[in-house]
From TrEMBL:
One of its GO terms (biological process) is 4-aminobenzoate biosynthetic process. Its cofactor is pyridoxal 5'-phosphate. InterPro entries: Aminodeoxychorismate_lyase_IV, Aminotrans_IV, Aminotransferase-like, BCAT-like_C, BCAT-like_N, Class-IV_PLP-Dep_Aminotrnsfr. Belongs to the class-IV pyridoxal-phosphate-dependent aminotransferase family. One of its GO terms (molecular function) is pyridoxal phosphate binding. This is Aminodeoxychorismate lyase. Pathway: Cofactor biosynthesis; tetrahydrofolate biosynthesis; 4-aminobenzoate from chorismate: step 2/2.
Length: 266
């Protein structure tokens, strides 16, 4: 349960039953890391939040409003996982949005940071991502593929799994973006034009890796790479030592380097 929650700036824990985020997944969200009351890499998260609101034609809350509410949740120097959700607000029955919606913002703080695995050895998840996704890259509230994939991980007693699209192209893990390094030390990341979520941590690394290559990567191509790194906002960069039957020999050193880069872009 969240340590603290604000709904439209007020302490609350209940939503109206007609909220479109609940009814139709009509909204977006972002997950952030808070350290001692301070949000890590807030400019990157805010940029993705604005992008995602625009993709759904949602009116984005003013930055100063969000920052004021983040300060409230950060009082006392808490560390934990922050979630920002923006829905289209309340609406009637039917898919069509109201003519003049009043978006609803929900900020919640979950105290304490979850443990980060030392490394990930992952199978390829049998749950695939639909393509082409009209909202590829956007972190919208429709996450049923990830819900089913996380259930798969729980049943297999594993920390994470790689997710591919319906054509067998590597996209992400159930909760992280992926990057690969080849023998020439070139960095690659899956092209997310058809599926997946563009994470803020992926964008932070992109800013430090100007030659990062977005590419189509299928599982047969994994042997081209010497290292793989998985990343998200809560846990940073984690070494990937294995995907399916393919092992990566140099992932730990490159994950450490990725975390150094992230430390330069807070």
């Amino acid at each position: 349960m969240a340590e603290a929650m604000l709904i439209d700036g007020r302490a609350a824990r209940e939503l109206p039953a007609d909220d479109r985020g609940l009814a139709y997944g009509d909204g977006i969200f972002r997950t952030l890391r808070m350290e001692s009351g301070r949000v890590v890499a807030w400019p990157f998260h805010h940029a993705r939040l604005m992008h995602d609101c625009a993709a759904l034609e949602l009116e984005a809350p003013p930055r100063e409003t969000l920052e004021a509410e983040l300060r409230i949740l950060g009082q006392g120097g808490l560390s934990g996982v922050l979630k920002i959700t923006i829905t289209r607000g309340s609406g009637g029955r039917g898919y069509a949005p109201p003519g003049r919606p009043t978006p609803r913002r929900i900020l919640s703080l979950h105290a304490g940071l979850p443990p980060v695995p030392d490394a990930l050895a992952m199978p390829v998840c049998p749950i695939t991502l639909a393509t082409p996704a009209v909202l590829a890259g956007v972190k919208h509230l429709n996450r049923l593929e990830q819900v089913l994939a996380r259930r798969y991980c729980e049943r297999q007693d594993i920390a994470d799994a790689v997710m591919c699209d319906a054509h067998g192209q590597v996209v992400c893990t159930t909760m992280r973006n992926l990057m690969f390094i080849d023998r020439a030390q070139r960095w690659y990341t899956p092209d997310l034009a058809r599926a997946g979520v563009i994470g803020a941590t992926r964008e932070r690394l992109r800013a430090r890796l100007p030659d990062l290559i977005e590419a189509t990567i299928d599982t047969a191509r994994l042997s081209d790479f010497r290292a793989a790194v998985a990343c998200n906002s809560v846990g940073g960069a984690v070494a990937v030592t294995q995907i399916g039957r393919h092992e990566f020999a140099d992932s730990r050193q490159w994950a450490a380097y990725a975390n150094e880069l992230l430390g330069q872009s807070v």
